[in-house]
Amino acid sequence: MTAHPTAPTPAAPSSGKPPHKSSRRSAPTPSSAGARPARRGLLLGALWAGMIVMVAPFLWMALSAFKSEKDLGATPTVWIPEEWTLVHFEKLIRLLDVGAHFFNSTLVAVVVTACNLVFCSMLGYALAKLNFAGKRPVFALVMCALMVPGNLMLMPMFVMVSKMGLIDSYAALILPFAAGAFGVFLMRQFMTAIPDELLEAARIDGAGEWFIFWRIAMPLVKPALATLAIFTFLQSWNNFLWPLVATNDPEKYTLPVALATFAIDPTKTNGSNGVLMAGAFLVVLPVLLVFILLQRYFTQGIATAGLK
C-alpha cells in the first residue's frame, strides 16, 4: 500500500517584527520597596541635622543680642529671651562710632563689588568671545592666579600700597581687590554659553564691541553677575586681615576690624557678651539683606553653573 505524502502546512506570514515581549516589569520585592522610604528618611534626617548645626550658632548670636544680662547668664541656657531689650545696641553705639565704621565697610564693599562686576565681565567677555594675540597665555595666567593662596599675596600688596603712599586711605582697601581671578573665570564660563551667531548678527548690523558687550552680553549673564556680586560683597565685607594691615588710623577701620579691637578692650565691654553679640548681628545683617535681594538670580546662577 502506497503512502501518500502529507501536504506541508503553510507557514504563517511573517510581519517582519520581532516577537512581542511582555512589557511587564518584575514587581518590587517587599524589602526593596521598604528600603526607599528608609533611605529617604535618613537623607532628610542628615539634611535637617546639617541645617541645625549651621543655623544654631547664628540664631544664638541673633537672640543673645536682644537678651538681658540675666538671660545671658542664666543656667540652664535660655534660648528665647524672657525680656527683649535693645540695651546692648545702645551701649555699643555709645562706646563705638558704629556709624562711621559701618560707612567705611559699606563704601569699600560696594565699590569693590562694582569694580569686580565691570572689570571681570570685560575680561571674561574678551577671553570668551574675542580673538587676540596672547589670549591663551592670559587665560592660563588667570587659572594660575586661582591656585595662589590669598594670604601669600599679603606682603607684596602691602609693599606696593606703601610705596604708592596709599596707607590709611580708601584706595588701599579698594584697589587690590578691584578685580579677581575667580570673577574673571566665572564670567568667562558664562560668556562662553552666549551663541556666537547672536553676536555676529549684531556686528553685521553695525554694532560695535562696546555696544554688544553692554546691551547684549551683560543682560544675558545676570545670574552670573548676581552670583559674583554676592561672593564679592561677602568677601569684601568680612575681610579682616587686609584692612587691619593697610590702616593705622582707627577712623578708617572697617566694621569687623573696629569690633575686633573693641572686643579686646576690657574697659569697654566690661565682660558683657551681649554687646559683642549685638556687634556681630550688625556685621551679619547687610550680608543677609544682599543675599535676600539677589537670591533669585543667585539660585539661577548656581543651578546653571554645571551646564557651562
Describe the protein.
The protein is an all-alpha fold. 68% of the residues lie in helices and 0% in strands. It contains 16 helices and no strands. It has helices spanning 30-64, 69-72, 87-95, 98-129, 135-146, 154-163, 170-174, 181-192, 196-204, 209-220, 222-238, 241-246, 255-263, 266-269, 273-293, 295-305. Helix 8 packs antiparallel against helix 11 (222-238). The protein starts with 29 loop residues before the first helix and ends with a helix. 24% of the residues are buried. Mean pLDDT is 81; it is low at 1-15.
Features:
single chain; about 300 residues; mainly alpha; 16 helices; globular
Oligomer status: single chain
Largest sheet properties: none
Coarse morphology: globular
Determine the strand fraction and express it as a percent band. under 5%
Distance from first to last alpha carbon: 87 Å
Uncertain stretches: 1-15
Average pLDDT, rounded to a whole number, is: 81
Radius of gyration over alpha carbons?
31 Å
Helix-residue proportion: 55-70%
Structural class call reads mainly alpha
What pattern of helices and strands is seen along the backbone? HHHHHHHHHHHHHHHH
Number of helices: 16
**How many strands in all?**
0
